[in-house]
Write a structure and sequence with these properties.
Strand content: 15-25%
Number of strands: 27
Distance between the termini: 81 Å
Bound molecules: 1-deoxynojirimycin
Radius of gyration: 27 Å
């Protein structure tokens, strides 16, 4: 019986494949194919294509998907997500082919945010590598692995600019800078899609969250945003635009409102800007239940918000099921034109066509591919390379790091032996139970060394955070009181020459719905650090966390601080390599680290104001109760070696329209070991028709130098690089004087001046 079914299925598929135009190459052929298919579709079937449901997971919002399989059979679903494996996806597409009238394959998506099974450092950490070429390689590898596991679509990249580290989702983005964010966004889109979705090892990218999601008031996830058009265009929109222009096939709406209209129902955003100004021709998916949530936003009842969303330009409804429930009547009554449903349906069918799903509904799925691609050696090596490049050395007094393995070293802290935290949030199908902790890596690498261990404290003691985080999942919780854990740690530390404290945030203290009002190290962890400091021994702090923290006390008191973020599958090993000097840290932070939360928002590319900050003068932009500078500026990070910069040399002091000049420095590694430096170019437009930032990142290069080696590092400057949106939202470069800065972080003073004619 099973054999008969199988044979029948094979015939169905062959018949299906021959019935369809197979090669998804030519636009005219695609149009013909989609026209033909749509001519056979009922209105309900077209609306079914707009419905995206979640398969396996519990809800992360106010509604969840139920009875999905039945709805698939009933032709009421265009795509599913939270779902993978060749077997499961094959089964679902089989169901489509055998049990639905038109046999339209499903889109299968997932939040493959920083790896699918091989997990790379969180996106915020990847940004800290400033290694665009590597980020693109990672996106290629991620697509390769995820597509072998049945997926065609990832909800990545997240390109939301964020200036508020209280917002938990800074972990998913590239930080505070639009120029860097745009470069990363493009690289990820290129890597996922490779300009050709018919290749079976690619994924459709989804640029999210459109738009301005990172500007939530107070850093509280899902909260209101409000900003001027000038700020939008100059400071927040460039990464979305860059990703769209790099060819991203899909865009996800954001939960927030813009100008009082929720993004999911905002026609200016989804149609005027995205489609008409930027030329986006893919489809727009809402975020999870975002249409449903428009009722709570207070812009209408169920029918009204559905009408608003589709008329605004949203094509696919994630989980609300409002489109499927409301559109038939809305079309009937004329509130939504059938042509609008047709347009949305067409865009989704086109995506399926481009993916080659009509030619092969099992696109990319084979058990052999899954076996050879999933967690393959090259992907694991890439994950480690990325982790090594992402770590940021925040402080290193008296060359406390790297460590000497012949010394007695005490490793203290709840993250020394914690697996779950290493993978971070949104770890897709990553299996944290199979990865090496810091302690495992120590033991495997230095089997004869004298390492000591004590847990020292619970990862989380705070009762509010305990309630909101996943305490069962790799966080060691026991009944021992804090004082007992600290006393034991101090006894252990007493036997050591050096103490390494491994502390930070639990994996789900950053990410979605993980905003914090206080971004200090947790009190119980700080108490442990204070006790370790009181031993008088040198203390190294290794941090794992998904956002900038306020580390004033640590910076004042701890000898060395290594930021390792949430470093992925090979993170434990990478940490050990850096601690013992086998690798030299080279990452630089992509978001300002404030001294305390009162300084937020704090970002390097601020305006000068009419009363620029002056330490010696009270009536200037300042707080009177603290050192006003950031603790660590954007772009900052140390190395075990030392890099020296020459002055900035310009090829010419004037730049003509249509011309270009170069700015260069000689970079010297004056220390005693090889290292990599991220050289940064900033420009200041001294006078403009609107006020201009005190500095803007306009270029960067990762330069490797051996000890004693020097190299000239050159950037090209063209008028295009000097453009900004003026008060009329025109993209212009205005003649006048500019300063060019080149250095190792945004606090660079080293500059030269030129004039744009
Ligand atoms: C909600 C999140 O905001 C979004 O980033 C994610 O892609 C969807 N849920 C799907 O899981």
């Amino acid at each position: 019986m099973i054999l008969v079914k199988r044979i029948l299925l094979i015939f169905t598929v062959i018949g299906f494949v021959t019935a369809c135009t197979v090669k998804p190459s030519n636009e005219a052929e695609m149009d013909k194919f989609v026209d033909n298919l749509m001519s056979q579709m009922t209105l309900d079937e077209k609306i079914g294509q707009l419905n995206l449901l979640s398969m396996w997971f519990d809800t992360t919002g106010p509604r969840m998907s139920k009875g999905v399989e039945q709805k698939v059979k009933d032709g009421l679903v265009g795509g599913v997500f939270n779902f993978w494996t060749p077997k499961a996806v094959r089964k679902l597409q089989d169901m489509i082919l055998t049990q639905t009238r038109l046999k339209i394959p499903l889109l299968v998506g997932y939040d493959v945010i920083h790896g699918h099974r091989t997990i790379y450092p969180i996106p915020f950490a990847l940004a800290a590598t400033w290694d665009i070429e590597m980020i693109e390689r990672i996106a290629v590898a991620v697509a390769d692995e995820a597509s072998a596991d049945g997926l065609q679509w990832t909800f990545s990249p997240m390109v939301d600019i964020a200036r508020d580290p209280r917002w938990g989702r800074v972990s998913e983005g590239a930080g505070e800078d639009a120029f860097l964010g745009a470069e990363i966004a493009k690289a990820m889109v290129r890597g996922y899609e490779q300009g050709d979705l018919s290749k079976q090892n690619t994924l459709m990218a989804c640029v999210k969250h459109f738009a301005l999601y990172g500007a939530a008031e107070g850093g509280r996830d899902y909260n209101t945003t409000d900003m001027s058009r000038l700020r939008m265009y100059n400071e927040y929109l460039p990464p979305y635009e860059a990703a769209v222009k790099a060819g991203a096939s899909t865009v996800m709406t954001s939960f927030n409102e813009i100008d009082g209209v929720p993004a999911t129902g905002n026609r200016w955003l989804l149609t005027d800007l995205l489609r008409n100004q930027w030329g986006f021709d893919g489809f727009v998916v809402t975020d999870w239940t975002a249409i449903y949530e428009m009722e709570d936003h207070g812009v209408g009842d169920k029918a009204k918000v559905t009408e608003l969303s589709i008329n605004a330009g949203a094509d696919m409804d994630m989980v609300s099921e409002y489109m499927i429930e409301e559109l038939p009547a809305l079309v009937k009554s004329g509130r939504v034109k059938e042509a609008t449903v047709d347009a949305a349906c067409r865009r989704i069918l086109e995506a399926k066509y481009k993916l080659g799903l009509f030619a092969d509904p099992y696109r990319g799925i084979s058990d052999e591919r899954a076996k050879s691609q999933i967690m393959s050696a090259d992907k694991l090596a890439l994950s480690k390379e990325a982790a090594l490049k992402s770590f940021v050395l925040l402080k290193n007094d008296k060359q406390t790091l790297p460590l000497d393995a012949s010394k007695k070293i005490a490793f203290i802290g709840p993250l020394v032996k914690n697996q779950r935290t290493l993978l971070g949030n949104w770890a897709a199908a990553g299996n944290w139970t199979k990865i090496m902790t810091v302690w495992d890596a120590l033991e495997s690498k230095y089997s004869n060394a004298k390492f000591l261990y004590a847990q020292g404290c619970h990862l989380v003691e705070d009762k509010y955070i305990r309630r909101m985080t996943d305490q069962g999942n790799g966080n060691v919780i026991d009944d021992r009181p804090a004082q007992q854990l600290i006393a034991e740690a101090v006894r252990t530390a007493g036997q050591a020459d050096v103490i390494v404290a491994v502390l930070g945030e639990a994996y789900d203290m950053s990410g979605e719905a993980a905003s914090r009002s206080n971004i200090n190290l947790l009190d119980n962890q700080r108490d442990l650090l204070k006790a370790l400091k009181a031993t008088g021994k040198p203390v190294v702090l290794v941090l794992m966390n998904g956002r900038p923290l306020t580390l004033q006390w640590e910076d004042d008191n701890i000898d060395a601080i290594l930021e390792t973020w949430l470093p992925g599958t090979r993170g434990g090993e990478a940490i050990v390599d850096v601690l013992f000097g086998e690798a030299n840290p080279s990452g630089k932070i992509t978001m300002t680290f404030p001294r305390n939360v009162g300084q937020i928002p704090i970002y390097y590319n601020h305006k000068n104001s009419g009363r620029p900050f002056n330490n010696d003068s009270k009536f200037t932009v300042k707080y009177i109760d603290m050192e006003n500078s950031p603790l660590y500026p954007f772009g900052y990070g140390l190395s075990y070696t030392q890099f020296d910069y020459s002055g900035v040399q310009l090829s010419d002091s004037t730049l003509a329209e249509g011309g270009s000049i170069t700015a260069s420095v000689t970079l010297t590694n004056s220390g005693d070991r090889a290292g990599e430096e991220i050289v940064q170019l900033y420009i200041r437009d001294l006078v403009g028709s609107i006020t201009r930032p005190v500095k803007e990142l306009k270029g960067f290069q990762r330069i490797a130098l051996n000890a004693g080696e020097s190299k000239q590092v050159t950037f090209s400057i063209t008028p295009e690089l000097l453009k900004f949106y003026n008060a009329d939202l025109k993209w212009v470069a205005e003649p006048g004087n500019f300063l060019v800065f080149i250095g190792g972080n945004s606090d660079v003073k080293n500059n030269a001046k030129f004039t744009l004619k």
